[in-house]
Design brief:
Distance between the termini: 152 Å
Shape: rod-shaped
Strand content: 15-25%
Strand order of the largest sheet: 3-2-5
Order of helices and strands: HHHHHEEEEEEEHHHHEHHH
Number of helices: 12
């Protein structure tokens, strides 16, 4: 009985096997596979140009053949080594990606193309006034070097890749500077440039843009803040100068004390020091005359 019911259909066979204690059959996926194949074929049909498109293509080829050889002047295009051409036929991208460099063929009336420059572009980010993490207003500008890595994506995925990259660079610069302190902006520009390059490269990858380098040009501070920082630096330098002068006086007084102790031990040493001082004074001021007096004589006169 179970075998007879298995021949009638998969549902009945499952019931029969369950009654026999064998267990249910695995789910049948043939129907799902067929439905998926039909959906894929429907998508392929939607991606085609359709019957009207084929008719227009045939008419375009007929026009080219009838107007030979004059039509060749319109159909053949040339792009430079650093350029690529993205071709649209009836508003759809042609398979095979961009064309170039060199000569390529364009059908009149139904095909249009757009040139894309692959050379590195220098983008100057205008000065951005940002409030830093420590509540200081600073104006910072930067330079971004980028190029188009995929011509087809840069045309099909974004309306204006260069303008979008410019706006994104300004926004990224403001966002990064807002998380930094003033001393980090002034002293750690390399890390800011690397962080900005990483953010831009990840965001513009879907637009066919490759960011090669980012550099911070200048950081401008308000005049009042510049004067305050200059006064602070000058006060710090004066404080350091006073400390250095005090340390020099301390060392000089110690050296003089040691010299006086040495001279006091020998009377001839004092006389030699006097003669040395007299020699140095006579070399600078010849009109100066010094009369030495013995200390013992002066002591007796005082007493």
């Amino acid at each position: 009985t179970c075998l007879c019911r298995m021949k009638t259909g998969p549902m009945q066979a499952s019931v029969a096997l369950a009654m026999a204690g064998v267990g249910p059959l695995p789910p049948v996926r043939k129907k799902a596979t067929i439905i998926g194949a039909l959906a894929a074929s429907a998508d392929d049909t939607d991606e085609g140009i359709g019957m009207c498109g084929w008719i227009l293509t045939a008419i375009s080829w007929l026009i080219v053949i009838v107007t030979l050889p004059f039509s060749l002047c319109v159909c053949f295009k040339v792009v430079q080594e650093y350029e690529r051409a993205v071709i649209f036929r009836l508003g759809r991208l042609l398979q095979g990606g961009s064309k170039g460099p060199g000569i390529f063929f364009v059908l009149p009336c139904i095909e249009s193309y757009q040139k894309v420059d692959l050379r590195t572009i220098t983008l100057g980010v205008p000065p951005q006034e940002v409030l830093t993490k420590d509540s200081v207003t600073v104006s910072v500008d930067a330079v971004v070097y980028y190029r188009v890595s995929n011509a087809t994506v840069s045309v099909a995925n974004v309306e204006n890749a260069h303008h979008s990259t410019r706006l994104l660079a300004q926004t990224s610069l403001r966002n990064i500077l807002g998380t930094k302190n003033l001393h980090e902006i002034l002293s750690d520009r390399e890390s800011i440039s690397l962080a900005m390059q990483t953010i831009l490269d990840e965001a513009t990858a879907a637009w066919g843009i490759k960011v090669e380098r980012v550099e911070i040009k200048d950081a401008r501070l308000p005049e009042q803040l510049q004067r305050a920082m200059a006064a602070e630096a000058e006060a710090a330098r004066e404080a350091r100068a006073k400390v250095i002068a005090a340390e020099g006086e301390k060392k000089a007084s110690g050296a003089l004390r040691d010299a006086s102790e040495i001279i006091s031990e020998s009377s001839s040493a004092l006389q030699l020091r006097y003669l040395q001082t007299l020699n140095s004074i006579s070399a600078e001021k010849n009109s100066t005359i010094i009369f030495p007096l013995p200390m013992d004589l002066v002591k007796n006169m005082v007493e």
